[in-house]
């Protein structure tokens, strides 16, 4: 009787807990969405930065012309005169997602503009991402940790920086895809269900569609599988989690035009196939072990190992020879710079020149993940207590992503979800311990029956880890008596086990209890830390990461200044030049020029042709006549230069100029970097070298600059310029904004 | 266009009514401003001016230092051509100066400059801008002791009879300053050069130093065709345009043939026809391209398409457009460098066409016709056309080379099916 009543109470409590979790998740979604709206409220509903403009333009094309034309889109307005096959060189996931949303809304008679849909895609998907985080963390450490991790992820600054409203970039949907792929992998690993394995392959396909970062998944999961095999955790669940993913995933990935045969031909995917083979060998070994007697097995092992070693050596030798024969060892430049952080700066200036490919500084960790940095180690420890397949996966995930984030700022974004999951686990475990202690102490003070308290706490607060196989759960239950399985079909067995072990658990629980005061202080500190995190995140979302970067603001003693010069210049180009005119600028502004000004550009942010970019870099660093010749050969009529020396906008072309020299010099050796440096220093004042003072970029930037204040004081470089009065011979100024 | 200009000209009321401007359809100049040192030139050179007027030009004579002259008003040029018969002017009146003359030429208008010995610095400067340098000695004249024209009033052999030009019937009389061409300028051409025995010096004084300009390096008459097809005639002799030279007979020294009439009239008439775009002016119309077998012009081609390019080229005869016939017009299919270079075949009626295959390279190409022939205006046509790669469904299906793979795929499927049945039901 008593047992039945207790069971009923537990079900009710579960139901209540589920409803509560549902509403908490809903609120987390709302939070994730709304914290990203600062940019819309403070500025306006616009697309931000550079790449999003391209994505926006592609989405417009998609909604106007349909998917087949998108797939076959040959864009003749960029990379003049080479053009660019957009359909085959773009990750279509984001565009298709936003296009589908737009199409759905329109067919529901909700007439939203494509731009609005694009602006709000990222916030919507960050809500999805936090729900996915909940699911993933729940698989690892139970619902409590899941909710905490989801709440943390909803407002982690690192992720906000890439997904504020208007930041319409691949990462916006890719992080969601990444987490959901990991979740489905863990889910398959825990359940051994082929259904989830198939879903996993589809989620992986979505990730491949969305972002080049999918290679992280296809390397991390094999690593984890290898880890499981090495640590003797091979099981049929592992096989089901991995083998379908590789086969289906690779087939699906090869369907994405931009990946195509890369899915089987580049070294990034090599690990997955190697592990696939190893997995099968291991599976075979386990199978043979099952059907042979131990003695026979030993004989077989020696036979196979000796033959296998020879074959393996031969195969590896061939592979190494094949890989070594290609100059980059079969790796793409970006991946190589991940493995060897100095690679890019040594060989590929075009990768090194992008600020988001630089290694981050220490403060940026504090800026981007804030207190999570302190919680992560605790989370890792919690993951080892006990170490399951799932928790070993998240440990591996965080270890690798910490490394990658240390190489490239951009990959901080991959690290952030891992940090959130770890911190969620840590926080939830800590809360768990403290609240349980308090509950025990309170109950003792109030004189309740200890048996009830013990049982209640073990049923309610302690995280549940479901979907553990029966044979295994018996082992783990010995280690951790409080573990309880939720699966319905196992309920009977669980009840028996719970009753059997409840007595044992009570005795052990009491030993874990902390003193009341300590628990309260600990709780308060944790809450304080959480509050600090929230304050920081809101600040970061509101102040640091909301600027659309096409509209600049600055505060002076006179008040707020808004610089809308970018859009003004693009509007001028759109309204005052011929449709087929070519505009040359440094590649940063390529996407914006095609999207906002609708003019043909020579190079853009898709830096696929180094030579072409080097040509523009050479033109910018050449004297006027030579530059005119280069530009004339490219039919360029207008040159766009961004100069911030007057208002103090630091990321202007003069500051980027050394990269133009380097990239140009990498292809055209007559451009030499030392010619532009005085004693190794980059300067534009009177000490600057004559080459520097005569190059096109200097002249275009500082043409008539002295007329502004009479001295030519550059507020970015904080110096007076070296050459003040000069005339342009081959170019003329048409517009200044 | 014509209407708009008409309105402007009426409003300014400087030019006679019903004047028709230079237009692409009617490329001959119509309104000519003649700047003279004094109006006596109008009568002393009346034969030349008369030939221009009879061909339909509207000449407007002004003194070079007239304070009211100007080439343009409200941004519109009032004239199509400028004739500078004012070798001694030191400063132009009104708004004209060297820069405005250069702008006038830069905007496609024509210019005739006639200097003389004692040419002013201003005229020299104009000439220098056009790529020719007059002899720096102001008193220098071209002297030729062998090829001078026999006459009863010229003892210092400065009156030169030159027949160093194409299809010379009678020698051309020249008396004036010589000039040399700037070797860096590839646009300027000698039309009438001095003979190898000529030199440039002051005939009144003794020659102390070797003359700086000698022989056939001396150019007597030069023309320039600018890149914008503006045409310039530069000569060091104003008197060669005069009635006196037009009418006088000529007998070259050492030659027994005495021509009744000098070649000046014919030479200068023909050359001013050229300068004023009555001759040697080409136009290209109806630039078309389409796939072979179709007639509509596509917005984009696919790689390996067969296409046909055609253009019609006409030559202005002074009154009408006549078909231009030549076999050396070439079309380029160009993307940074020509991928296809093909000579267009002509039907002798001005229609040129060529068929070729789009190269197996995608990108933004241009159809380019760069036709530059001496004496003709240059034709520079370019038409941008993108070339796309194959669409996803345009590739060949069922390649023979792929049959082993199809076979392996289907046998694999069949094998798996059989294996499954055997595995499931054999026990």
From TrEMBL, chain A:
GO terms for cellular component: endoplasmic reticulum membrane. It is a multi-pass membrane protein. Keywords: Endoplasmic reticulum, Glycoprotein, Glycosyltransferase, Magnesium, Manganese, Membrane, Metal-binding, Transferase, Transmembrane, Transmembrane helix. InterPro entries: Oligo_trans_STT3, STT3-PglB_core, STT3_N. It is an enzyme of class 2 (transferase). Its cofactor is Mg(2+); Mn(2+). Residues 471-503 are annotated as: Disordered. One of its GO terms (molecular function) is dolichyl-diphosphooligosaccharide-protein glycotransferase activity. Residues 19-422 form the Oligosaccharyl transferase STT3 N-terminal domain. It comes from the Eukaryota. The chain crosses the membrane at residues 15-35, 85-105, 117-136, 142-160, 172-197, 203-227, 239-264, 270-288, 300-324, 365-385, 392-409, 415-434, 511-535. It is found in: Endoplasmic reticulum membrane. It holds the Pfam family STT3. Component of the oligosaccharyltransferase (OST) complex. This is dolichyl-diphosphooligosaccharide--protein glycotransferase. The lineage of its organism: Eukaryota, Viridiplantae, Streptophyta, Embryophyta, Tracheophyta.
Automatic annotation (TrEMBL), chain B:
It comes from the Eukaryota. This is Dolichyl-diphosphooligosaccharide--protein glycosyltransferase 48 kDa subunit. It comes from Citrus sinensis.
